[in-house]
Amino acid sequence: MNTLEETNSVLLENILVQAKYFLDNADEFYPFGSVIDNKGELKPMGAYTGIEHPDSVEAFNLLEKGVKLGIEKKKYLAAAIGTDVFLSKETGGEIEKRTAIQIRFYSSDPLTSDKYFYYFHSENGYSFEETWL
After folding, report:
1. Mean pLDDT by 10 residues, the chain (133 residues)
2. What phi and psi values does residue 96 have, to the nearest 5 degrees?
3. Tally of domains within the chain
């Protein structure tokens, strides 16, 4: 992977594949991540709090702390974390809450970026649609 854009594309695809798997098999997911290590290998990442159903904010914060430390110590080149969110959308004058996944990207660049995808369930399983905030 040569550029940050290419790296983020690989991370994005991996996060969406993992999220689809979790949704198709459990109809939910807790925050999870993927990293590209200093050898260029893609690896999944999770957070263990010792609780079967952890608080999502606590799980996200643990993942983010691990990702930032790994990048700082040059163990990871880049990373992404996927987390379940609700987005509000106005349709026909009414506010509608919709489920979505937020994907936050990390690298040695101190600025992070986020992408959002609504997700939908059909007879073929879950699918995603990118949205811009």
Report:
1. 84 97 94 96 90 87 96 96 91 87 92 92 94 80
2. -115, 130
3. 1
